[in-house]
Amino acid sequence: xxxxxxxxxxxxxPLLLVLLGAPALQGxxxxxxxxxxxxxxxxxxxxxxxxxxxxxxxxxPDATGFTLRKGxxxxxxxxxxxxxxxxxxxxxxxxxxxxxNWTGNTIGFARSADRVNWTFxxxxxxxxxxxxxxxxxxxxxxxxxxxxxxxxxxxxxxxxHFTAYKITATNSALTTWSAPTQLSGIGxxxxxxxxxxxxxxxxxxxxxxxxxxxxxxxxxxxxxxxTFKKTGNWAGFGDWVEGPALVQLDNGGWRIYxxxxxxxxxxxxxxxxxxxTWTTPTEVPGLTGFIRHATVLKETVSGGVTTPxxxxxxxxxxxxxxxxxxxxxxxxxxxxxxxxxxSTAVKQGATFTVVPGLADANCYSFRDSSGRYLRHWDFRxxxxxxxxxxxxxxxxxYCARPGTASGSVSLxxxxxxGRYLRHxxxxxxxxxxxxxxxxxxxxxFTVVNPWA
Length: 452
Hints:
Pfam families: AbfB. The chain is mainly beta. It contains five helices and 32 strands. It has a four-stranded antiparallel sheet with strand order 3-2-1-20, with no helix packed on it. The chain is elongated and about 80 Å long. It starts with a helix and ends with a strand.
């Protein structure tokens, strides 16, 4: 986004964002990130290009950079484990349901106490006569607490004419299920239906098997009738894509993951306006080309990275420990050498007051001695006085994630999730996460005693 447009956005706010087609952060909670002592954890389960019979488990603090926790983590006693969908039940266990084979009428179940060690439970037969394929089961827990599975079924002789159905657990052990009910309005020939509920509306993302696009429909009831709102390449996801899975981010936005199976890539994209527009698709770092049809579970867990607020601190580069984040006379941010022999002005430029985040009090903002805030502008870091707009507050807010060194922190942009404060040629920027040791080191800082 160029400088002229950013000035217009600052002056005119969210309305202009919508007119320009850029995603605006609307309806975001004042403090969506977990409080001190807690952290967000995103757990991903997926099968892979290398095996349809093994499930891999990853997790992430930010829904962007995922770390392998175990792989393979689960192999069923027979058959396949395609399309594993994960959720956490009220009994404290994690459950997956999955496609057991290319043909047949069953879905599989397994559970785990720790997300990495799984125990097979059973295969469940969908009680519909003549089924030839039973694919892509997805958990959906409704606002009334009911546990449901949305599954794609067909009785066709070939892999076509799928229709979405719902089954609902009739006991807390998840071993007995209601009769299947079709999701009215979705099908035939739609597969991989994934549903989320926002307020009283059900939002379904589903693959059109004819056009190979992910389409979007809404309903006032889980079973419909659904009305398609967007078809074709409405969101810029492209064609020959499948397996949509959504999760909500800490800043209130929604992220969709999907499988670009023809291109052999795995993508994500974000929306901040009730699913109307989406950011340019980005490959999932480190996993694109390897994982297939994943789902992601969001939880709040103990731990996380915190630093005291309303105190003065300096930010020391992890991989250039003689350099610190500074503001120079041009109002831009850099990492520069600072030492005991440095001038008072240099020490002052490397000292900031850490305050609760302007856009989210559970994140952080950094203010220099003249009252200016560390913020990004065209992804370059600079220091500006607050103009009181929502755009400025979001630009100046960073959420803490674990850094590469013990006790260090990485600072994720609040309004551009997946972008981190990092140095490049000693200039400070907010750049998209890269699955490299260099990037992780460049984006890690130690919060230390102030120089001034």
